[in-house]
Design brief:
Elements: H1 5-17, H2 20-27, H3 43-50, H4 52-76, H5 83-96, H6 109-116, H7 121-138, H8 141-158, H9 164-180, H10 182-190
Length: 201
């Protein structure tokens, strides 16, 4: 591994751990987003409980930290086949399990999109399209999120993402996103999952 690889992966994790959704929700009057709604530290829960502006800002910042991690890896280790892919996974893991919030974080959707946009732009764009389409048709944000993650992984593999490590990282990220949505899947199967409603604000 590149000599600074461990430090770069650790930095990516710490970038992912910045709890933008938690901080934005607090700035918009929700003291602890973990104690309202779904309890998820992510843009959707922020949108539902702190309003549309807060939700969009949280989504944008969560995506930006994902992109920042992979862009940093691409810049500091140009031509390295594996490090940017590792950085992408690390920043998503940081968002899901942030050290600053006792490892109670979000589900990695916005951060995952941001992380893979520089590495696999077309799969990332199609993943967003899948998310929007499924969420709009079903009004289940969770189902749209899962669909987007699966499409990202499938297309990164099918379109031959270069280097191949990017496709592997996309598959790992998709598995993590699905795992983080396991309670949503149980509720979907039971018919108890909450549909998207008009947000506050």
């Amino acid at each position: 591994m590149w000599p600074g690889g461990v430090a770069l992966v650790a930095t990516s994790y710490l970038l992912g751990s910045i709890p933008f959704s938690f901080l934005i929700a607090r700035a918009f009057g929700v003291r602890d987003v973990r104690r309202v709604g779904s309890g998820n530290v992510g843009a959707t829960n922020v949108l539902r409980n702190a309003g549309k502006a807060a939700g969009l800002l949280a989504f944008g910042l969560d995506a930006a930290k994902g992109a920042a991690a992979t862009l940093l890896a691409l810049r500091l280790a140009p031509g390295h086949a594996v490090l940017p892919a590792l950085a992408a996974v690390a920043v998503v893991v940081g968002h899901m399990y942030p050290v600053w919030l006792r490892f109670q974080g979000g589900k990695g959707v916005a951060t995952g999109f941001g992380a893979f946009a520089p590495l696999a732009p077309w799969p990332a764009l199609w993943a967003v399209a899948a998310f929007v389409l499924v969420a709009a048709l079903t009004r289940y944000v969770s189902l749209g999120s899962i669909a987007g993650a699966v499409v990202l992984a499938a297309l990164a593999s099918a379109l031959g993402a270069s280097p191949p490590a990017v496709a592997v990282a996309a598959a790992i990220t998709a598995a993590l996103v699905v795992f983080r949505h396991r309670s949503n899947l149980r509720r979907l199967l039971a018919g108890d999952e909450r549909r998207q409603a008009e947000p506050k604000g």
